[in-house]
Design goal:
By secondary structure, the chain is an alpha+beta fold. It folds into 3 domains: about 220 residues, no CATH class; about 70 residues, no CATH class; about 35 residues, no CATH class. About 20% of the residues lie in helices and about 40% in strands. Strand 3 and strand 4 form a beta hairpin. The longest helix is centred in the C-terminal third of the chain and has 24 residues. The chain is flat. The protein starts with a strand and ends in a 14-residue tail after the last helix. About 25% of the residues are buried. The structure holds zinc ion (ZN) (2 copies). One zinc ion binds next to loops.
Length: about 350
């Protein structure tokens, strides 16, 4: 049995929830500031931390009920009394940092409505739905974060463009037309790059869409259990080594870009890359987000608001009628414009002869 923790209100004893820099009491509305000093991440040489979650039985610190928790649950609500609870880390390694929520639900909702309102081609009733929408839930998802260097040996080709003139014969003689050709040279080389603050979500149930939210890990605070009070939080279920594989994928684009720059010339072909990662260091942090969803015509549309920056990401339906109307009016505009240009004598539209009969 895992004993959970609650943070009681000093005035009335009801549990407090963390909301945007404050611990708030739902019951008596008492507010206590929770000011955590912002800091920067201290990285340590890579060590493999494995997930270890054994006991699914949680004991509620408010009502004493026991209940089965979802795997890797770190913080949530008691299903019986709805008290916010925080469980101690079962993995045996608590992530040292967190990005605190910089928005509360109200502000996140305002961001969401503004974003939905500005959507192009969204059905009107879908937009209208968000005017009354009120349900956003705060989540904390764990992530590993890395600093490392990579030495990449590559082989490839450098393309140098040159111009060749080609004669085109017509019934009035010929014209010389310039054409771009490329000469290719075999190349090989090494680039050496350093990366830092590359993070990868370390809880496998993190929604794919939410993984695309961009965070600024330069603004963290030391982890404090109170930050989890009133949010749904999870521990990592992905080892630091697995997380590092994901982080390698994050920098692949930047690596290929550096190789292209190194190859130079006008065009580049990369044939092979051998990557050697070294000086790998890691740390861990919790990332804040709001999660909501709407059901529209039998389909669930999830959406997420970044708890740090307010960035909104989501799936949305398209109104095919609106798109059709836009396409039709654009076509009508082009036809009218062509007709006008021809009428004014700027262009001459020639129809193939057989189309005229
Ligand atoms: Zn209170
Ligand atoms: Zn309870």
């Amino acid at each position: 049995m895992i004993e959970t923790k609650r943070f009681p209100c000093p005035s009335c004893g009801a549990p407090l929830r963390f909301r945007k820099g404050q611990m708030r009491c739902d019951y008596c509305q008492r507010v206590e500031p929770l000011a955590l000093p912002s800091t920067s991440i201290t990285y340590r040489p890579l060590q493999n931390h494995l997930p270890n979650w054994e006991d699914p039985n949680f004991l509620c610190a408010s009502c004493g009920a026991s209940f089965q928790a979802k795997p890797f649950l770190h913080a949530g609500e008691c299903p019986y009394c709805q008290s916010p609870l925080v469980a101690p880390s079962q993995n045996g390694y608590e992530l040292p940092y967190a990005i605190p929520f910089a928005l509360d639900e109200g502000e996140a909702l305002a961001r969401l409505r503004r974003r939905i309102g500005s959507l192009w081609f969204a059905p009107n009733d879908f937009k209208r739905f968000f005017k009354q929408y009120k349900k956003l839930r705060p989540f904390y998802y764990p992530a590993w974060i890395y600093r490392f260097r990579v030495r990449a040996s590559y082989t490839g080709q450098r393309g140098i463009d040159y111009v060749e003139y080609r004669r085109i014969y017509t019934n009035r003689g010929y014209r010389e037309v310039p054409e771009i050709r490329t000469r290719w040279y075999l190349v090989h080389g090494v680039v050496d790059l350093g990366f830092e603050d590359i993070y990868a979500f370390s809880y496998t149930q993190t929604p794919m869409l939410a993984r695309r939210l961009l965070y600024r890990p330069q603004e963290v605070v030391p982890f404090d259990e109170r930050l989890l009070a009133g949010q749904e939080g999870y521990e990592f279920d992905t080892s630091t080594k697995q997380g590092f594989t994901a982080a390698q994928g994050v920098v692949e684009g930047a690596l290929r870009q550096a190789i292209r720059r190194d190859i130079g010339g006008d065009r580049q072909i990369i044939s092979s890359i051998q990557r050697h990662f070294y000086d790998v260091e890691y740390s861990g942090l919790y990332l804040p987000l709001f999660w909501g969803s709407v059901e529209y015509r039998g389909k669930i549309y999830p959406f997420f608001v970044n708890g740090q920056t307010g960035e909104v990401i989501g799936e949305r339906p398209y109104s095919w009628l609106k798109i059709l109307l836009a396409v039709a009016s654009t076509l009508a505009f082009i036809v009218a414009l062509l007709w006008l240009l021809e009428y004014l004598g700027y262009i001459e539209i020639e129809m193939p002869a057989h189309l005229l009969y």
